[in-house]
Write a structure and sequence with these properties.
The protein has 20 helices and two strands. By secondary structure, it is an all-alpha fold.
C-alpha cells in the first residue's frame, strides 16, 4: 500500500459517504484511511475524521483503527493530538467493549501540559463517562494505582474537581459509593498533596454527613498520624508535626457530643506539649505551636472522660505558666513584657474545659493557686493595656492582615477575661462558655469547599507595652495562625515516606515506555509508605 495523500483521503471520504448500504464493501478504502495516520499533519487530521465517522461500519477493523488513533494521540504536534483526542468519545459510542481501553488512554492524556490539550482530554473523558460512568471511574482508579506520579496526580484532581460536578444522571449514588470505597483503599499509600485532595473530597461527601462516616474519617486520620506510636519529632524524611496538624484540621468539624475527641486530646497533651521547645526549633516552629494550641482548644470542647485527667491538665497548666509571666518583683515598673494573647486564649480554654474533670487540681496546693492567680491578674492587666493601645491607634492606617487581627481581638480579650473570672471564684469554677475568637468566622462543615494551596498564615495577637502605648502587634513578625482558612495545606517536602512529595521528572511524554506507544506503558512502582 503506497503513501496515502491528503487528496486520496478526501476521495476515500467521498466514496464512503456515497456508499450508503454498500459501505461494508469498501474495506480497502477504510484500511487506507487508517494508513493515512502515518502521513503528514493534514493527512493525520483528515484520517482521524474518516476513521471516527465510519468506524461503526467496519467492526473487524476497529481494534486496528483504535490503535491508529492512539498513535497520533502521541504525535509531536499539539494540533494533531487534539484532533485525535476529539475522536475517542465517538469510537466509544460505536464500540462499547473498548471503553475501558480508551478511558485508560484519556486518563493518561490528562498529564499534557498545554491547558488547551488538557481541556480536550478532560472533556473527552467526561463524554466517555456519559456512556459508561462506572467502567470509566474504575479505569481512572486503575491509573491511580498503576501509572507514574504525574498521571496519578492529574487523575486524582480530575476525580475531585470534575466528576462531582457532573449531572446527577452521571454522578449517581453508585458512582459516589465507588469513589468513596476506592479513595479509602488508597489512603494508606498517598503523598501529602494527595491526602489533602482526597480528604477535602471526603469531607464534603455523603460519608461526612453520617455519624458512622465521620467516625470512619476520624479513624483514617488517626491512622495517618500513627497515634499508636510516639511522635518522632525529627524524622529525617518527614515533618510529623506538619502531618499531625494537617490531619487534625480535617477531623475537627466531625467531633460533637456524640463523637468524642478524647484520643486526640490525650495525644496532643502527652506527645506535643512535653516537647514544646523541640517544636519551636523546627522551621516555622512558632507557627506550629500556635496551630497545635488552637487545635487542642477545639478538641477539648468535645473531649470525653479522661482516664487520669490530671496527667493531661498539668501539661496544659505548665504551658499556661510559660505564656503568662509572673508579676515583677519591682512593683514600680509600668512596662509589660511581650504577651501572646492568641496562645493564652487557646490554653486557658483547653484548661477550663479539661480541669473540670479534676476540680481539685488548683485547690490542692493553696500556695500554688495564689501564685497562679497572681499571674492571671497580671495578664489581665496586659489585656486592658492592649485594649487601650487599640483604642489609641484607631486613626492609624493598618494592613489588611492587621485589620483582621484587630477585628477578632475584642472577642479574644473578652474570652480571656471571662475564663480568668471563673478561675478566681472560691473554689475555681468551670461553668462559663465562650466561643473561641478564631472560630467566629469559620464556615460550617457543609460549606467547606476547595483546598487553598497558597494559604497565608494570619498574625497572632501579641502585645509589648512601652509605657502603655505600643500597638497589639509586631511588624514583620511571622504569621502563626492559619486558622481562618478552610483547609491547612502542608508546605512541600516536609512529610514522611507516606507523605513525601513525589518526583515529577519523567523520561518521555507519557510515562510508561519511550518512543511511540509509550502511552500504553506501565508506570514505575510506588513507595510512599513504609
Amino acid at each position: 500500500m503506497g503513501e496515502v495523500t491528503f487528496d486520496k483521503l478526501y476521495d476515500i471520504y467521498n466514496t464512503l459517504s456515497q456508499a450508503k448500504d454498500n459501505i461494508t464493501q469498501h474495506t480497502q478504502e477504510y484500511l487506507e484511511a487508517i494508513e493515512g495516520t502515518k502521513g503528514g499533519e493534514k493527512e493525520k487530521k483528515l484520517a482521524a475524521q474518516v476513521i471516527s465517522k465510519f468506524f461503526k461500519h467496519f467492526p473487524s477493523l476497529q481494534l486496528q483503527a483504535i490503535d491508529a488513533i492512539f498513535d497520533i494521540c502521541e504525535d509531536d504536534q499539539a494540533s494533531i493530538r487534539i484532533a485525535a483526542m476529539k475522536t475517542l468519545p465517538i469510537l466509544c459510542k460505536e464500540s462499547k467493549e473498548n471503553i475501558g481501553k480508551i478511558a485508560d488512554v484519556l486518563s493518561q492524556l490528562l498529564q499534557l501540559d498545554d491547558p488547551q490539550e488538557y481541556n480536550v482530554a478532560s472533556n473527552s473523558l467526561i463524554q466517555v463517562l456519559q456512556i459508561d460512568s462506572l467502567l470509566v471511574i474504575k479505569s481512572i482508579f486503575k491509573q491511580l494505582s498503576e501509572s507514574d506520579a504525574l498521571v496519578r496526580e492529574k487523575c486524582l484532581k480530575f476525580l475531585v474537581t470534575k466528576v462531582k460536578t457532573l449531572d446527577k444522571s452521571i454522578f449517581t449514588p453508585e458512582i459516589e459509593d465507588l469513589i468513596l470505597a476506592e479513595f479509602k483503599k488508597i489512603l494508606n499509600d498517598v503523598t501529602a498533596d494527595e491526602f489533602v485532595l482526597i480528604m477535602g473530597y471526603l469531607s464534603t461527601s455523603k460519608a461526612a454527613n453520617t455519624q458512622a462516616g465521620q467516625i470512619e474519617l476520624i479513624n483514617v486520620c488517626a491512622d495517618q498520624v500513627e497515634m499508636d506510636q510516639d511522635l518522632d519529632m525529627f524524622d529525617k524524611d518527614a515533618n510529623n508535626i506538619d502531618r499531625l496538624v494537617t490531619c487534625v484540621k480535617f477531623v475537627l468539624p466531625f467531633f460533637s457530643a456524640k463523637i468524642e475527641s478524647t484520643k486526640f486530646v490525650k495525644y496532643y497533651c502527652d506527645q506535643t506539649l512535653p516537647r514544646w521547645d523541640e517544636i519551636k526549633e523546627l522551621t516555622d516552629g512558632e507557627s506550629y505551636q500556635l496551630m497545635i494550641l488552637r487545635q487542642l482548644a477545639e478538641l477539648s470542647t468535645h473531649c470525653g472522660k479522661l482516664e487520669n485527667p490530671s496527667v493531661q491538665v498539668v501539661q496544659i497548666y505548665d504551658k499556661i505558666k510559660t505564656y503568662m509571666p509572673p508579676p515583677p518583683e519591682d512593683t514600680t515598673l509600668t512596662t509589660l513584657p511581650s504577651l501572646d494573647f492568641s496562645s493564652v486564649e487557646a490554653l486557658l480554654y483547653a484548661f477550663h474545659r479539661l480541669a473540670r474533670q479534676c476540680p481539685d487540681f488548683l485547690t490542692h496546693d493553696p500556695q500554688e493557686l495564689k501564685e497562679f492567680r497572681a499571674r492571671l491578674m497580671y495578664f489581665s492587666r496586659g489585656v486592658q493595656g492592649c485594649r487601650n493601645a487599640i483604642k489609641a491607634d484607631k486613626t492609624k492606617t493598618l494592613s489588611e492582615e492587621n485589620e483582621k487581627v484587630l477585628k477578632i481581638s475584642p472577642i479574644m480579650f473578652d474570652n480571656i477575661n471571662t475564663i480568668i473570672k471563673d478561675l478566681f471564684y472560691q473554689p475555681p469554677m468551670y461553668k462559663c462558655n465562650v466561643t473561641l475568637s478564631f472560630k467566629t468566622e469559620v464556615s460550617p462543615l457543609k460549606k467547606t469547599t476547595e483546598v487553598n494551596v497558597t494559604q497565608k498564615r494570619h498574625v497572632p495577637i501579641t502585645f509589648e507595652s512601652k509605657n502603655g502605648s505600643a500597638p497589639p502587634y509586631k511588624q514583620g513578625r511571622p504569621n502563626r495562625s492559619g486558622d481562618n482558612v478552610k483547609l491547612y495545606t502542608p508546605p512541600s517536602g516536609k512529610f514522611s515516606n507516606n507523605f513525601q512529595h513525589y518526583d515529577r521528572q519523567r523520561g518521555n511524554r507519557f510515562g510508561g515506555r519511550g518512543g511511540r506507544g509509550g502511552l500504553r506503558g506501565r508506570g514505575s512502582g510506588r513507595g510512599w509508605r513504609n
